[in-house]
Amino acid sequence: MVAILLSRNRWAVASRVGLVAAVFVIVGGCTLTPEERLRWDLSDEIYATAARECANQYHTVRVTRVAVNGDVQGDTAADSKSEIRAFSTCYWEGIETRVKKRQEKGQSLPEQFNMHPDVDLD
Question: In sequence order, what are the residues at sequence separation of 6 or more whose Cβ sits closer than 8 angstroms to the Cβ of residue 16?
Fold first, then answer.
């Protein structure tokens, strides 16, 4: 009986140690480098904001996803496929404007910042 209790205690301790180790691995693996953090921040500040503004300008375009690298996915009304090119141009110009403003303020950008991301509107 004592042997069973001891083996259960060892199992409980081993489980707790394993859980703590897993938490450290997960948390440690999820930390972002400064460049990755900047890329995530700029994804919202530059890409998502430009996409929102252009979608508000072209009401038949619905943006469903903006990736960290700026790629946009969404859809348009069936009768307004002609707005895809205009939306894309608006989006790229919006990115360019925001990047120039950051550079004028002396704010950094990640290396290889995507100035013309893909626009996939079905």
Answer: none
Confidence check: pLDDT of 13 > 90: no
Mean pLDDT of all residues in 61-71: 95
The CA-atom distances, in angstroms, between 78 and each of 62, 81, 88, 122 are 12, 6, 17, 9
pLDDT tens digits along 90-101: 999 999 999 999
Domain boundaries, the chain: 1-31, 34-121
Cα separation, 114 vs 111, in Å, equals: 9
Amino acid at the residue 88 = S
CA distances from 38 to 9, 11, 41, 45, 68 (A): 46, 43, 5, 10, 10
